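Severity: low
Component: inverse-folding endpoint
Summary: output formatting inconsistent between runs
Steps to reproduce: submit the following structure tokens with default settings.
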């Protein structure tokens, strides 16, 4: 006899508006329709059931940077925000630019992460790109085209060769496209003009010109309409560029300091006009400590936390009818999974059974609600809808503030060669 489902979500409003029950076994959806029995039943009446998000751009820190964040707190923050898969960026200390560093990063995640994860390889002229691919790197980069926190920029002269090698593997190059002009970085307006919209779009164009072998490109955290219009690869945008502008705070507030910069209100509005061109929303979760962010503006590091508030802010925009729920699901779950080549979360048989359940009421974000070790958020006071229940591989991993053990997956890249 067939085993009973491990979990059944009943009264789920699936896309198209119909109500159905979703049966899950061994981490996958096995049936959508009317289901009569299961080992665990969750009634989803009155809730939005969303395929859980894949955040393709997070910096989970750890090691020497554990005062900012580590895998445990970062992944807890992800789950509590309805994100069950994160893609960790390689600008760790030390950076993931050799197989040994990559392997120990995988071990660190395996040991401590509460959510599923993928890990990217760094790219320097000396990185053995083919070996990193065989070790399981999901994608390459973010490749810094301008310096940011804890990274060296790849010189334009070295870029075509690196892209050619990634292309030969069938890999994906993810690009932090920015340009910087010299000047005093004294506040948010200065930061914005030293790393301007024009500099960003020129960086996009330069990278594309250097991509002579047509390597697949993904542009990370794009902050301006001008740069997005220039981009010929997939486009990722963050909640901080969609919801924050420098007019919303004091010019010297380094908590809003991030690369690319938080722009003017006018730029932010222009960004929204390209909503349909945005392929993916990712958080660029880049926590720094309160003390670091309290340094004088020029000395404070760039980066803001955001993995936990990404979907909740977007859900509030759904309630306000600013965006449509299917777009939210497409840009936070479906498209990121497709970009990485991992199974999508969703409602069809075979889909990854990762879900987050949301009420239809927003709350005001307070830093105390959140789980990142950094203990602050640039979205304090914003309205957001947080999920009381989050499911990973058919197991409830988060409920009303409590976390439960599960079996996170390491999603390797296509080139992974398992050790003998
Ligand atoms: C990131 C960080 O702190 O690691 N900072 C940032 O301002 N975005 C690095 C990055 O993604 O550029
Ligand atoms: Zn970046």
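Observed output (run 2 of 3):
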């Amino acid at each position: 006899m067939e085993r009973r489902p491990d979990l059944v979500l009943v009264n789920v409003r699936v896309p198209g508006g119909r109500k159905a029950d979703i049966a899950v076994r061994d981490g996958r959806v096995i049936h959508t329709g009317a289901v009569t029995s299961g080992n665990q039943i969750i009634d989803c009446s009155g809730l939005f059931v969303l395929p859980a998000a894949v955040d393709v751009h997070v910096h989970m820190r750890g090691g020497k940077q554990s005062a900012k964040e580590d895998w445990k707190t970062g992944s807890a923050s992800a789950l509590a925000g309805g994100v069950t898969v994160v893609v960790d960026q390689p600008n760790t200390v030390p950076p993931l630019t050799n197989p040994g560093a990559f392997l120990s990063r995988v071990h660190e995640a395996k040991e401590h992460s509460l959510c599923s994860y993928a890990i990217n390889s760094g790219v320097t002229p000396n990185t053995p790109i083919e070996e990193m691919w065989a070790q399981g790197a999901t994608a390459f980069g973010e490749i810094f085209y301008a310096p940011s926190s804890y990274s060296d920029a790849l010189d334009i002269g070295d870029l075509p060769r690196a892209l050619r090698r990634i292309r030969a593997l069938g890999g994906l190059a993810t690009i932090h496209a920015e340009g910087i002009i010299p000047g005093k970085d004294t506040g948010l307006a200065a930061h914005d003009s030293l790393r301007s919209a024009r500099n960003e779009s020129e960086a996009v164009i330069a990278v594309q010109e250097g991509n002579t072998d047509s390597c697949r490109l993904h542009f990370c955290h794009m902050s301006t309409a001008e740069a997005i219009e220039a981009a010929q690869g997939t486009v990722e945008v963050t909640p901080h560029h969609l919801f924050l502008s420098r007019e919303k705070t004091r010019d010297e507030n380094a908590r809003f300091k991030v690369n690319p910069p938080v722009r003017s209100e006018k730029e932010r509005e222009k960004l929204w006009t390209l909503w349909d061109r945005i392929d993916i929303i990712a958080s660029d979760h880049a926590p720094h400590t309160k003390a670091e962010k309290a340094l004088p503006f020029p000395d404070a590091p760039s980066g803001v936390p955001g993995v936990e508030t990404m979907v909740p802010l977007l859900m509030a925009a759904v309630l306000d009818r600013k965006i449509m729920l299917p777009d939210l699901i497409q840009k936070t779950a479906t498209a990121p999974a497709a970009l990485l080549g991992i199974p999508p979360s969703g409602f069809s048989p075979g889909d990854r059974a990762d879900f987050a359940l949301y009420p239809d009421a927003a709350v005001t974000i307070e830093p105390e609600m959140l789980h990142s070790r950094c203990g602050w958020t640039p979205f304090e006071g914003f309205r957001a809808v947080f999920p009381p229940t989050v499911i990973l591989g058919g197991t409830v991993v988060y409920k009303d503030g409590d976390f439960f053990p599960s079996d996170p997956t390491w999603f390797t890249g296509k080139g992974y060669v398992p050790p003998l």
